[in-house]
Amino acid sequence: MVRLERVVRGKLGLERGERVLAVAGTRGGSRVVVTRYALFVPDGEGGFRRVPWEKVLRASWNGEWLHVWGDEGEHHVRLTEPGSVPEVVQERVTSTVVVSRYFAFGDDGGVRVVGRKATHGKPSPAPDGLLWSLVYDDGLDASDPGVKNKAEQLLLAVRREIGL
């Protein structure tokens, strides 16, 4: 079991049965906390922002910075004592992915269609039990109606392909 200071644990608001898997210190003196259900990153105000694993689109580690891109924004945190946090983050993100398909749109990039299962013990709000995301390459204009329509059609095709 990972030991966490009582004051930090109190700020997290952990769900019943939510276990802490890894903790890392940050350059700002806070912590990054990894649990079975979510990643907790400093919010800049002495608290934490909860990022459920099924809402993490991708994560990377470059030896100093943890970068996390999610449905609700990006988080970039410099870890002073990473410990096992980078590896556990990668494992947790990967564990939610049920289906992932990439489609190129020519030279401008492409889109990845991803279906994830929820990592908490509650039933998924989605009718098919999966939470679906469209992850666009940086060079692709996701606001373009043609691109958006094509990506949504690909999402429907993937759902049909796997029987949902």
What does this molecule look like?
- The protein has three helices and ten strands; from the N terminus they run H-E-E-E-E-E-E-E-H-E-E-E-H.
- The strands form two sheets. The protein has a seven-stranded antiparallel β-sheet, sandwiched between helices. The protein has a three-stranded antiparallel β-sheet with strand order 8-9-10.
- The longest helix has 17 residues, at 145-161.
- The chain has helices at 6-12, 85-96, 145-161; strands at 20-26, 31-35, 38-42, 48-52, 56-61, 65-70, 73-81, 97-104, 110-117, 130-136.
- The chain is elongated and about 50 Å long.
- By secondary structure, the protein is an alpha+beta fold.
- Strand 3 and strand 4 form a beta hairpin.
**What's the number of helices?**
3
Structural class by helix and strand composition: alpha+beta
What profile does the largest beta sheet have? 7 strands, antiparallel
Unreliable residue runs: none
Short description:
The chain is an alpha+beta fold. Helix content is 22%, strand content 40%.
Show the helix and strand layout.
Blueprint: H1 6-12, E1 20-26, E2 31-35, E3 38-42, E4 48-52, E5 56-61, E6 65-70, E7 73-81, H2 85-96, E8 97-104, E9 110-117, E10 130-136, H3 145-161
Keywords:
single chain, 164 residues, alpha+beta, 10 strands, elongated
